[in-house]
């Protein structure tokens, strides 16, 4: 199965690809690499999931928000690159978690995105290197922001 077929089998929907609200590009291709800027959790109606993990949101809600960020990133790929099948593998993921100072399960939250990528591109190609870190705040009070780098075919 290719990535598009795996995604369709999951029964998930892609939200609209976000447009930049600042001075940056949502994606950049350099040779055989695709870089995605930090993405937030965009819903189907273009609104953002908001809230800090450890106060307004619990850990499971944070993990679902991270999966929604992953879906938003897939939407950017499909919208601007054309197909999930253009991605050979995930190289790196940086996950930033908006959380209370006592929250320590950042990797668990970012697994929401990493598990989605593994399901789409398979464990060999869908899992890259990763960092998951906590932040005192993120833009618009989103719970998770993720950026990534991919290798293209």
TrEMBL record:
It holds the Pfam family YjgF_endoribonc. Residues 5-124 form the Endoribonuclease L-PSP/chorismate mutase-like domain. This is Endoribonuclease L-PSP/chorismate mutase-like domain-containing protein. PANTHER family: ENDORIBONUCLEASE L-PSP_CHORISMATE MUTASE-LIKE DOMAIN-CONTAINING PROTEIN (PTHR43760:SF1), ENDORIBONUCLEASE-RELATED (PTHR43760). InterPro entries: Endoribo_LPSP/chorism_mut-like, RutC-like_sf. It comes from Niastella populi. It comes from the Bacteria.
């Amino acid at each position: 199965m290719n990535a598009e077929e795996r995604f369709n089998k999951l029964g998930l929907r892609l939200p609209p690809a976000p447009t930049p609200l600042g001075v940056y590009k949502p994606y950049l291709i350099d040779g055989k690499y695709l870089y995605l800027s930090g993405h937030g959790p965009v819903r189907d109606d273009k609104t953002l999931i908001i809230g800090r993990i450890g106060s307004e949101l619990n850990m499971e809600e944070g993990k679902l928000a991270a999966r929604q960020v992953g879906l938003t990133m897939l939407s950017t790929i499909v919208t601007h690159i054309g197909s999930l099948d253009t991605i050979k593998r995930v190289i790196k993921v940086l996950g930033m978690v908006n959380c209370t100072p006592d929250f320590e399960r950042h990797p668990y939250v970012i697994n929401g995105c990493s598990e989605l990528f593994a399901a789409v591109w398979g464990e060999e190609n869908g899992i890259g290197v990763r960092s998951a870190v906590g932040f005192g705040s993120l833009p618009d009070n989103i719970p998770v922001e993720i950026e990534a780098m991919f290798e293209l075919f």
